[in-house]
Amino acid sequence: MTRKMWGLIPVLDCSQLLRLCPSQCKPSVWPITTPDPRVDSPQRTMSDQAFVTLATNDSYAKGAMVLGQSLRNHNTTRKLVALVGPHVAEPCRDALRSIFDEVRVVDVMDSGDTAHLALMKRPDLGVTFTKLHCWTLTHYSKCVFMDADTLVLSNIDELFEREELSAAPDPGWPDCFNSGVFVFRPSNETHEKLLTFCGENGSFDGGDQGVLNSFFNTWATADISKHLPFIYNLSSIAIYSYLPAFKQYGHDAKVVHFLGKVKPWNYSYDAQRGEVKGHSQSPDQTQLHPDYLLMWWQLYAKSVLPLLQKAFGDTPFNSGFVEAGSDEKLHEDVREHPAPSFPPPQKVSSEERKQRWEAGQIDYLGDDSFANIERKLDSFLK
Ligand SMILES: [Mn+2]
Questions:
Q1: Interval 267-290: pLDDT, tens
Q2: 76 Cα to the center of ligand 1, angstroms
Q3: CA of 175 to the centre of ligand 1 (A)
Q4: Distance between Cα 30 and ligand 1 center (Å)
Q5: pTM for the model
Q6: Measured in angstroms, how far is the CA atom of residue 263 from the centroid of ligand 1?
Q7: What is the pLDDT of residues 71-113, one digit of tens each?
Q8: CATH match for 44-341 among 3.30.565.10, 3.40.50.2000, 3.90.550.10, 3.30.930.10
Q9: Which of 130, 203, 222, 233 is the S-S candidate for 168 at Cβ 3.0 to 4.6 Å?
């Protein structure tokens, strides 16, 4: 889908031009069609800045669609770009194209000698190399990368006022930034340096976050303006590890990040009841906040599923939907995607629960659920 972007239309009159470049104002050579990508003037930011995400498979593609739609719903003025791995199915790419301005297939195997060489040295870092590819989007002057497992709750265009590399602290080790949301400047030179660095040093955590933190290694200390407030990358794990702070500041959250192994698309949704299924009995397997999870599914049901249904036509695909009161699954290929089954919750003693909590085994949706912790906290605060 082509989107008309007002930013493409130059709206400067001659007096404005004179103010911008008094010494060399020659309107005939003023680079109206090829603006200098390094200058952030309001007239051009819309078309030469972009939000970028990455989908390496069809599940992450669903996440990317929800993220893209959430950015659209909050009226972003920037372009939307989805990088997709070679394994993303054609109908998913079609659905992505109706939300994103640009859908670009990234195959690390064909992306130049440095990439190839780095991948040969570190074949385990294939997905990381795919993500680093965002630095090659040099037709944009500045971008904000967002993981496909993030969801935008309000307009965040102000992030483009930040410089490379701006990111929010990681909740697990706050001297590292979390690479789920970051501001960067596309540059082939930086891309090559990153690949070389990656091939030589690998990644201390096996993923892109390790590489990027080692490469941009002054983030923690050099420039506080590159520390994004936590509300731009709020992960559920932080909600549970510091609940009073969440109660105080949580309503300001602008971006939610579904960190962890279990992602929103691993659940299923009962549209008739408006309920997310498949999580209520999964104590240790999830850390997702139920309200944000429901928001994700509501957006998916309303805006993304219709696009997927159109793109897939009669071909079955895993919609994630369940029909209430019936075993029949709507457009769901149950053979390939069996519904997750979770063991029934076991009652544990208070002491045992404390030990589990301290060992990081938190029953987020059972005894240690948000509602239970909140109730306990309220009883202390009263
Ligand atoms: Mn993520």
A1: 999 988 888 987 544 554 456 788
A2: 21
A3: 18
A4: 42
A5: 0.74
A6: 9
A7: 999 999 999 999 999 999 999 999 999 999 999 999 876 667 7
A8: 3.90.550.10
A9: 233
